[in-house]
Amino acid sequence: MRLVELSVGFLVCLFSILGYQYSSSLVETVQHTVGYFVTVFFPNINHQNPQGYPLQMSPASVDTMKKVVKVGFIATAIIGVGCAFYGVIAKKPSHNVYFTTDA
Predict the structure, then answer these.
(1) 25 contacts 65 by C-beta, under 8 angstroms
(2) Sign of the C-alpha dihedral, residues 87, 91, 92, 95?
(3) Reduced to 3 states, what is the DSSP secondary structure of residue 102?
(4) CA 65, 77, 9: angle at the middle one, nearest 5?
(5) Would you state the torsion angle of the CA atoms of residues 20, 24, 26, 27, taken in this order, to the nearest 10 degrees?
(6) Band of residue 102 on the pLDDT scale cut at 50, 70, 90
(7) H helices of 1-103, where?
(8) What are the Cα distances from residue 19, in Å, to 49, 68, 76, 84?
(9) Residue 25: enclosing H or E segment and its boundaries?
(10) Does residue 22 carry a pLDDT above 70?
């Protein structure tokens, strides 16, 4: 058992589970931050539409962004589980492989 790979896999899996649960608010926060950035640094451009979606984003594109982010977190969870599984089944390396006692 390799503890480093096991712990990294566990942390990646935990991160992806939390990210999956908070992906909706994450996408909305990034969307509003980008909209704020555009209106602050380019005051002559106003991209707010009546529904409140910055940068001319319709609700369908926001839903698509949420789905893509969720798929990314699912893929990250699979990678974390694979790394943790490798940490469980892998043997520890032998430290005396390169040293021989032949004289």
Answers:
(1) no
(2) negative
(3) coil
(4) 145
(5) 120
(6) low
(7) 3-21, 23-41, 59-89
(8) 28, 12, 10, 18
(9) helix 23-41
(10) yes
Which residues, 6 or more positions from 91, have their beta carbon under 8 angstroms from its beta carbon?
Answer: none
CB atoms within 10 A of CB 83: 21
**Each residue's pLDDT tens digit, 26-80:** 888 888 887 777 777 777 665 555 555 555 555 557 888 899 999 999 999 999 9
pLDDT at 34: 79
Domain residue limits, the chain: 3-89
**Encoded tokens for 18:** 């939390």
Tell me which residue has tokens 């319709």.
58
SS3 74: helix
